[in-house]
Amino acid sequence: MFRLDERLEPMFSLTDDRLIDKMAQTLNTVLTSLEQLDSLRFIIRHLGERHRQYGVLPVHFDLVKEAMTRVMACRLGEHFTPALALAWSGAYDEIAAIMIEGLQAEEPCTEGADMDISQ
Ligand code: HEM
What we know:
It contains four helices and no strands. The protein is globular, with a radius of gyration of 17 Å. The chain is an all-alpha fold. The termini are far apart. It has a domain of 80 residues: Globins (Globin-like), CATH 1.10.490.
């Protein structure tokens, strides 16, 4: 991913295996529960919301997809069939769309939270 766009590197405080494990684990949970995508929607949306703090923009999702797809194609070789590529692409797009929904959601309004409205 950093080879595709080196400007992304400073966004990551963890570039070691812990982050990769966490991202992979989340992606795995989501991909294995695709049939229940509706019940996961809230969690995925919230994950997208958290990505706002990391400085992520909607346009970055295509880049990450490209990086992940290249890694999968390279690792899986001939097992990365056109059918698998298509299924992976569709699944990623669905997840990314929900994350982007969360990313673009209005920030909760906290203004006035400390105001005394008792009178
Ligand atoms: C399907 C897409 C993605 C999934 C499943 C995913 C998942 C995750 C998870 C599980 C974390 C750990 C922290 C948390 O739970 O809040 C994380 C952190 C992070 N992700 Fe993603 N992510 C995705 C897309 C992206 C994209 C497009 C970017 C843009 C470059 C990105 C940048 C980051 C950054 C900067 C962090 C924080 C790293 C740190 O604290 O060092 N992610 N992501």
